[in-house]
């Protein structure tokens, strides 16, 4: 065996101890370290491949010295960019172990990972109060979940025209319509990947002052389609204002017009973990497919999401992969190789499973409620200071605001805050205006973190 490999085999414990020390140092530093990294303008993209290598311990040290300072504090309590969850302790420990066990999460009869995946998907379904009849599968993120949803919708449309699209392709099918209100940009990417085209999405009018779609406009569009099948992509939690399409009303339309309903509940779905806030997701049981991310508000490390569906057989038609050494795709819900774009699969269900068992219904309700209360509180602080202006009412866990003084601009403040490091907020645009956006999704965030963030914002605009 090669020298360094042989030595590292003997030093396995020391190497893992070193990694554990690095992890502990990083986790403890999160409240103090800059919320986002400051990257030098010039970074060399090319380093020479060593002939001999230096062994694992030296390489770990090299990484810690040269690269850990370039990482953000995104699992920390004041990283409010994008929609970024942290990792709960149980989820993090599980994720470490996933790499250690290194199982291929297929149903080949030689490992028991699919039982955990099935349980994890069912536990999450219970947390959110979604239908027991739905099946689910883990994928890498909401983009992939949206892709699986759209691919099943495509298959369903094909069947309406007597065509097995998965077998025979799309060519020759009559054109069909894809309707949405405020669809996330990943929907366009999913449509591109599915061969349906980014530009086919028809954005319908929204309700005044809202990001939710105008149901009357949707009905008019569906009436025009007559008995031709369509796809409707509903939003359950838009990224700027956490607005929800009216799923009860869309479900009622589904009784009268033929369409596949895909719901993108990437982070908004997790609102349902809080019994008092769950109402915005009423009607979701009408969905044919639903996307929900685990690496956002569920506070599981990257990368992990779940696609739920009421149409398991269609999913298998699209994603089956049969060969001499892969078992035939019988219709069972944990034959994950035949349910997702991947073939070999990471055991990414384990962090969901461990975190849900570690913290339960009440733990997750607490995360969602505390994050939403923190957002309300930040909203009140913003409103109390005339140098800032809320750009939208605070719904759930996101606060959108702009600067209201001549001294600085919203874009400049975003950069100054990034430089300062106390907190990180994303720049965004709402109704054509630049805004700052704080998405509060981390289990560690406290009211004191909000105070600290707001005090810094005040300092920066004064
Ligand atoms: C984040 C997000 C996505 C994309 O999710 P990834 O996990 O980054 O692929 C899709 N839809 C919504 C509503 C999101 O918030």
From TrEMBL:
Q: Name one GO biological process term.
A: amino acid metabolic process
Q: Which domain of life is it from?
A: Bacteria
Could you tell me which InterPro entries the record lists for this protein? Aromatic_deC (IPR010977), PyrdxlP-dep_de-COase (IPR002129), PyrdxlP-dep_Trfase (IPR015424), PyrdxlP-dep_Trfase_major (IPR015421), PyrdxlP-dep_Trfase_small (IPR015422)
Please report the name of this protein according to its UniProt entry: Aspartate aminotransferase family protein
Which protein family is it in? Answer: Belongs to the group II decarboxylase family.
Upper taxonomic lineage:
Bacteria, Pseudomonadati, Pseudomonadota, Gammaproteobacteria, Lysobacterales
Keywords on record? Aminotransferase, Decarboxylase, Lyase, Pyridoxal phosphate, Transferase
Q: Which cofactor does it need?
A: pyridoxal 5'-phosphate
Residue numbers bearing the N6-(pyridoxal phosphate)lysine modification: 296
Keyword Transferase present in the record's keywords: the answer is yes
Return the PANTHER family for the record.
GROUP II PYRIDOXAL-5-PHOSPHATE DECARBOXYLASE, MIP05841P
Cross-referenced SUPFAM superfamilies: PLP-dependent transferases (SSF53383)
Q: Does the keyword RNA-binding apply?
A: no
Q: Which GO terms describe its molecular function?
A: carboxy-lyase activity; pyridoxal phosphate binding; transaminase activity
């Amino acid at each position: 065996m090669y020298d360094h490999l042989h030595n590292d085999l003997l030093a396995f414990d020391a190497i893992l101890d070193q990694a554990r020390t690095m992890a502990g140092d990083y986790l403890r530093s999160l409240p103090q370290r800059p919320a986002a990294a400051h990257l030098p303008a010039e970074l060399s993209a090319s380093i020479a491949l060593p002939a001999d290598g230096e062994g694992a311990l030296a390489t770990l040290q090299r990484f810690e010295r040269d690269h850990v300072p370039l990482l953000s504090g995104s699992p920390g309590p004041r990283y409010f960019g994008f929609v970024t969850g942290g990792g709960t302790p149980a989820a993090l420990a599980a994720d470490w172990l996933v790499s250690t066990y290194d199982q291929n999460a297929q149903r080949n009869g030689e490992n028991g990972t699919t039982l955990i995946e099935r349980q994890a998907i069912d536990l999450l379904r219970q947390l959110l109060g979604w239908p027991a009849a739905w099946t689910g599968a883990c994928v890498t993120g909401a983009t992939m979940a949206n892709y699986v949803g759209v691919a099943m919708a495509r298959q369903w449309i094909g069947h309406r025209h007597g065509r097995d699209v998965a077998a025979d392709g799309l060519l020759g099918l009559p054109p069909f319509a894809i309707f949405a209100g405020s669809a996330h940009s990943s929907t366009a990417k999913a449509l591109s990947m599915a061969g349906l085209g980014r530009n086919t999405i028809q954005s319908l009018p929204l309700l005044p002052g809202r990001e939710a779609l105008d149901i009357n406009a949707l009905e008019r569009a569906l009436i025009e389609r007559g008995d031709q099948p369509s796809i409707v992509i509903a939003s359950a939690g838009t990224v700027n204002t956490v607005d929800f399409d009216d799923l009860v009303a869309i479900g009622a339309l589904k009784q009268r017009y033929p369409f596949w309903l895909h719901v993108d509940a990437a982070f908004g779905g997790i609102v349902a973990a809080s019994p008092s806030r769950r109402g915005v997701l009423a009607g979701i049981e009408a969905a044919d497919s639903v996307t929900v991310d685990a690496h956002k508000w569920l506070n599981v490390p990257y990368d992990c999401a779940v696609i739920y569906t009421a149409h398991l057989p269609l999913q298998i038609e699209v994603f089956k992969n049969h060969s001499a050494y892969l078992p035939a795709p019988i219709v069972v819900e944990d034959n994950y190789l035949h349910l997702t774009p991947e073939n070999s699969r990471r055991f990414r269900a384990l962090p969901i499973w461990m975190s849900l068992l570690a913290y339960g219904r009440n733990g997750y309700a607490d995360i969602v409620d505390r994050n939403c209360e923190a957002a309300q509180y930040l909203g009140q602080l913003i409103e109390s200071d005339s140098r800032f202006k809320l750009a939208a009412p605070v719904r759930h866990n996101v606060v959108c605001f702009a600067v209201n003084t001549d001294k600085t601009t919203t874009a400049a403040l975003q950069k100054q805050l990034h430089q300062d490091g106390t907190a990180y907020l994303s720049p965004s645009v709402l109704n054509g205006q630049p805004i700052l956006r704080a998405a509060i999704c981390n289990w560690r965030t406290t009211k004191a973190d909000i105070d600290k963030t707001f005090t810094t914002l005040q300092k920066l605009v004064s």
